[in-house]
Amino acid sequence: MQEFPSFIDDLPITRLALSFAADHHAGQRRDTDGAPFILHPLEVAQLLRGRGYPDRVVAAGVLHDVVEDTPVGFDEIEDRFGPDVVRLVRAVSEPEGDGSYAERKARLRDAIASAEADALAVFAADKVAKARELRLGLVRGDRAIDRDKLDHYWACLDLLEHRLGHHPLTRQLRFELEALALLPPASET
């Protein structure tokens, strides 16, 4: 049996989601540091739980990358975790279609712009975790951050501040992005 952090002990849907996600993300590694990919969805879940979100929202945070990064489809998510969880996962998943990174992420922002508050929270927690990974990469010695990615995160912040105002996750995303702007790559210090 897998061991997971204690913050999910009282979240039965999230425990199942984390086991499911860990199985499906097995062998995948994060680009930024080579760590097991499951650490990213786990961090998203912790950010949501730390702000008092209920089990179904935290579970959606765990599952938010499963459809995009594994062969799992929305039907399987709904069958296993129910309509509320799949609705949130669907809301934060990149819409189908080709194009450059900037074009695909613009479609995602357009789609999330009218989403419910819980989906926006999952989206915000994901962006906080990813911006933090970028910041830690700079501290570790990465030389540069992809400009399209950084532009996307700033555009996400604008969207989230418009929709959620001064929500704790929005404020945390602002901190992470401002810290990135202030931190030069480690080789410049």
Instruction: Please give the CATH class.
Output: Mainly Alpha
- How do the SSEs run, as a string of H and E? HHHHHHHHHH
Strand content: under 5%
Averaged pLDDT: 91
Helices, by number, come to: 10
Main sheet, how many strands, which sense, barrel? none
Number of domains: 1
Structural account:
By secondary structure, the protein is an all-alpha fold. 66% of the residues lie in helices and 0% in strands. The protein has a single domain, classed as Orthogonal Bundle (Hypothetical protein af1432). The protein has helices at 12-24, 39-49, 55-63, 66-69, 74-81, 83-92, 101-112, 117-140, 147-164, 168-182. The chain is globular, with a radius of gyration of 16 Å. The termini are far apart.
Explain the layout of strands and helices:
Blueprint: H1 12-24, H2 39-49, H3 55-63, H4 66-69, H5 74-81, H6 83-92, H7 101-112, H8 117-140, H9 147-164, H10 168-182
Helix pairs in contact: 1-3, 2-3, 2-8, 3-6, 3-8, 5-6, 6-8, 7-9, 8-9, 8-10, 9-10
Can you describe this structure in just a few lines?
By secondary structure, the chain is mainly alpha-helical.
Structural features:
Hypothetical protein af1432, mainly alpha, 189 residues
